[in-house]
Amino acid sequence: MDLEEKLSILAAAAKYDASCASSGSEGRAGKSGSAAPGGLGYREAAGVCHSWTGDGRCVSLLKLLYSNVCRFDCAYCVNRVSSDIPRASFTSQELVDLTVEFYRRNYIEGLFLSSGIFSDPDVVMEKLIQTARALRTQGAFGGYIHLKIIPGSGEKLIREAGLWADRLSVNIELPTAGSLKKLAPQKDGKVIFGAMGEVNDTEREYGEDRKTMRSVPEFAPSGQSTQLVIGASPEDDRTIINLSGALYRKFGLRRVYYSAFTPAGGTGGPPDPRLPDIAAPPVKREHRLYQADWLLRFYHFTPQEVLDGDTPFLDTLIDPKAAWALRHLEFFPVEVIRASYEDLLRVPGIGAVSARRIVEVRRGSAFGAASRSLSFDRLRRLGVTLKRARYFITIAGAFIDRAADAGRLRSILAGLDGEGLQLPLFDF
Ligand code: SF4
Q1: What is the pLDDT of residues 208-251, one digit of tens each?
Q2: What kind and span of H or E run contains 195?
């Protein structure tokens, strides 16, 4: 099999891993026509995705599997052993050459590398490390590297992976041990958590050492992430959000990615009887989970606040912050002149950026001056979405609109849903 064919198979096989946020994009080669679709220089066919580095830069990554040969039979995965698809494997040298070539041509800024479990976990992990090591040493590759940790691989290999990679990820895939047992019977939650713990402990250890010894190398400076498949198993959103909260707390994860389950694993083949019979991937649910996750990471919400005991699923019509506000109308109106940064963050329509700007404007003014300088018009200019915030705030006691009852507000906010809401920079 030639390299182009391998590239096409192994880029397509990596497509369903969301733990590097993916988006097919027409690259320079595609636009200029300098390479034919399917050719080595054709960015879209080669599976270029976009991801965010630890310092918030968006980078384009060549997203590939080392091999799509897999001994496991995860029901939701196109690469499972029982799936009738063409199989291929790279060699480490092929991957190094490809990555360096794409990097030199400026098509990519880094590599995302995962693999099917084609052999013992240590053997597979060693191949991924060998590729990253050769890229850094032989290829003098200074770009971004995201390596998948193969659960079950030894501690020594996990520790070495973080010395070559910027980011590591271990996919948890399903939210409970019961669902793992049913849909991914060869996977073990304890082993997955063990690998996350090892990454976290090593990250901390290197961080501590680097405070006192300048020669200590960085270990996975962009941290670790994971992926959860949404809709392949029956767990509710509350279970998923509680799990994400625990992963952020316990293992210091930078990101949890949510991937809407694609029926028939994207193959168009017959559905696996272990899976639910759904017509289309639950993308709206995935979107709401990302919004809820944003509340955990940047808006100081706890998982229990995002979804309390009475609400197992996120509201599909309004975003989770608006839903919290409607469940807690007693919290409003928030007085913009006095409210803390944390309270401002609770207001629908005020995001992290606009809350910070409000606090900065107030810091430079006495109370009377602040009430004059913070007009509703000024709030709009500071980035507040007044269409949403107007029902929840006062300025020096003045309302734009008094909050109507929760039912009426819900239909107003549902009508505004999606306006100006874009991940990952949206303010809601
Ligand atoms: S281990 Fe499971 S999820 Fe990973 S490639 Fe194999 S079948 Fe797919």
Answers
A1: 999 999 899 999 999 999 999 999 999 999 999 999 999 999 99
A2: helix 189-212
- What b/e readout covers 40-51, taking b as 16+ CB neighbours within 10 angstroms? bbbbebbbbbbb
Q: In this predicted structure, which of 98-107, 160-169, 293-302, 362-371 has the lowest mean pLDDT?
A: 362-371
Which residues 6+ apart lie within 8 Å of 312 measured at CB? 236, 237, 238
Which residue minimizes the CA distance to atom 7 of ligand 1? 80
Q: Which two tokens stand for residue 186?
A: 């060869």
Residue type (1 letter), 73: D
How far is the centre of ligand 1, averaged over its atoms, from the C-alpha of 367 (Å)? 59
Q: In the numeric block, which tokens belong to residue 253?
A: 């994860």
Per-domain boundaries in the chain: 3-306, 320-416
Of the pLDDT bands very low, low, confident and very high (cuts 50, 70, 90), residue 273 is confident
* CA dist., res. 241 & res. 101, Å (int): 40
Cα separation, 379 vs 262, in Å, equals 42
Q: What CATH number matches the domain at 3-306, 3.20.20.70, 3.40.1190.20, 3.30.365.10, 1.10.3720.10? A: 3.20.20.70
Q: What is the pLDDT of residue 428?
A: 37
Protein residue with least CA distance to atom 4, ligand 1: 116
CA 38 from centroid of its chain's CA atoms: 28
pTM of the model: 0.86
Report helix angle 237-251 to 189-212, nearest 10.
Answer: 30
For residues 169-174, average pLDDT: 94
- Residue 149 CA to ligand 1 centre (angstroms): 12
Handedness of CA 31, 39, 12, 278 (dihedral sign): positive
Backbone angles phi, psi at 94, to 5 degrees: -60, -40
Q: What's the rounded Cα separation, in Å, for the pair 318 and 413?
A: 6
Query: Using an 8 Å Cβ cutoff, are 350 and 340 in contact?
Result: no
Residue 192 in contact with ligand 1 by CB distance below 6 A: no
pLDDT at 270: 65
